[in-house]
């Protein structure tokens, strides 16, 4: 794809009349600094802060004939949708903010999006993945992350890719899907079914599991009998732990097993799970080992090193996608040539760029259609990035060794 680079002006090259600093543009955000989302909220804010500082230290953003620095106005939404909506109104009506960055979580993004839409204020977000955000007809909402239906689609694509490379018939492949019956996991299910149909694969198991599931044995019995080529499981942290445990206990052999929530369930913990999670494919939004790069941060690895140097911990994907959201706004401001919200909105819609976080291009709904999810494979308790193949740093072990051969 054609890649636009964010053009950052160096301070030494600028000449200002009567002032030592550029004019500023304030970006508004409602972020969960307290409440149940406070940990992820702090990652979100750190990502915003780092990108803004990096852009400002490099000289700011040239918009038309004016050079601006960026500032961030933040209120604590206390992890509450009603509070987030109220604060969005406050930022727009009282603080006169013309550009918004998103909150953490799909729920809070859903609370804010109607507000920004009503006022015609562009919002770029990186932490609301629900596909339902993008079927409302919003024109001012843009998301840099992969949406929920994309979380495990890459597993279907990877299976097709490996089968074609070996000279096999993709239409002979069988897929088993076991997902918790909640909105997030059902979005994932929908994405898998869509991609399986696109490739002509046969879905032989499609089980919706109860919330707070405690047993997958009936589904896994069907998997053993039907011998699918791919098993997909999604049941949040509890479901991930359960799937790893019961697949091992029941000696379920599948060439490929992909799941969500590996990290939160800590299925790579060798003391707790032994090597039962070996060869599992784990979905993720981003990884520091990706080979994406840009002119501001450099590579994904460079970003990770800089973030850790500032905040003393390895950046999770919430921080990375938040930094990318700031970069997208800065790039759109430059291309808009002014600060008119309509012009900035149109520039956002035309975005086509690569960042350390990934490629970014929005469809008509505001979804990023250029960045696939990544898949990391576990081996001996360690993660290796194996897909998308173009951005991987390790070879996929495929098919998974049978339990008898381990």
Describe the protein's architecture and organization:
The chain folds into two domains: 11-146 and 287-361, Rossmann fold, CATH 3.40.50; 150-284 and 374-405, Response regulator (Rossmann fold), CATH 3.40.50. The chain is 37% helix and 21% strand. It has helices at 38-57, 81-94, 106-119, 153-165, 183-199, 217-226, 236-249, 262-265, 270-273, 300-311, 317-336, 341-349, and strands at residues 23-31, 61-63, 66-76, 99-101, 123-125, 141-143, 174-180, 202-209, 230-234, 256-259, 281-284, 293-294, 298-299, 352-355, 358-361, 374-379, 382-387. Strands 8-7-9-10-11-16-17 form a seven-stranded mixed β-sheet, with helices on both faces. It has a six-stranded mixed β-sheet with strand order 2-3-1-4-5-6, with helices on both faces. β2 and β3 form a beta hairpin. α4 packs parallel to α5. The longest helix is centred in the N-terminal third of the chain and has 20 residues, at 38-57. The protein starts with 22 loop residues before the first strand and ends in a 19-residue tail after the last strand. Mean pLDDT is 92; it is low at 1-21.
């Amino acid at each position: 794809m054609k890649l636009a680079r964010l053009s950052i002006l160096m301070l030494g090259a600028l000449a200002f009349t009567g002032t030592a600093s550029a004019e500023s543009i304030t970006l508004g955000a409602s972020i969960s600094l307290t409440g149940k989302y406070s940990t992820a909220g702090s990652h979100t804010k750190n990502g915003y802060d780092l990108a803004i500082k990096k852009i400002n230290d490099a000289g700011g953003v040239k918009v038309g004939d004016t050079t601006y620095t960026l500032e961030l106005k933040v209120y604590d939404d206390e992890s509450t949708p009603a509070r987030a909506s109220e604060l969005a109104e406050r930022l727009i009506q009282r603080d006169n903010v013309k550009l918004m960055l998103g909150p953490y979580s799909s729920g809070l993004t859903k609370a804010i999006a109607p507000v920004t839409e009503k006022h015609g204020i562009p919002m770029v977000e990186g932490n609301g993945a629900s596909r339902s955000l993008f079927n409302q007809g919003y024109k001012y909402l843009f998301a840099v992350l992969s949406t929920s239906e994309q979380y495990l689609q890459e597993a279907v694509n990877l299976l097709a890719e490996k089968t074609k490379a070996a000279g096999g018939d993709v239409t002979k492949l069988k897929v088993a899907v076991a997902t918790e019956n909640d909105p997030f996991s059902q979005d994932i299910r929908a994405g898998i079914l869509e991609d399986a149909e696109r490739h002509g694969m046969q879905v032989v198991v499609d089980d919706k599991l109860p919330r707070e599931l405690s047993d997958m044995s009936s589904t896994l019995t069907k998997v053993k009998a039907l011998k699918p080529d791919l098993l997909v499981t999604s049941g949040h942290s509890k479901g991930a732990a359960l799937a790893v445990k019961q697949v091992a206990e029941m000696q379920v052999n599948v060439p490929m097993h992909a799941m969500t929530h590996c990290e939160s369930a800590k299925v790579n913990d060798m003391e707790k799970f032994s090597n039962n999670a070996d060869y599992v494919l784990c979905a993720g939004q981003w990884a520091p080992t990706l080979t994406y790069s840009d002119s501001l941060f450099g590579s994904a690895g460079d970003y990770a090193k800089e973030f850790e140097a500032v905040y003393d911990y390895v950046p999770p994907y919430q921080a990375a996608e938040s930094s990318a959201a700031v970069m997208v706004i800065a790039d759109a401001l430059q291309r808009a040539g002014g600060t008119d919200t309509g012009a900035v909105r149109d520039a956002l819609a035309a975005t086509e760029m690569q960042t350390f976080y990934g490629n970014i291009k929005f469809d008509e709904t505001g979804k990023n259609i250029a960045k696939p999810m990544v898949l990391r494979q576990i081996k001996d308790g360690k993660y290796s990035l194996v897909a998308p193949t173009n951005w991987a740093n390790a070879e996929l072990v495929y098919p998974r060794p049978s339990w008898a051969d381990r």
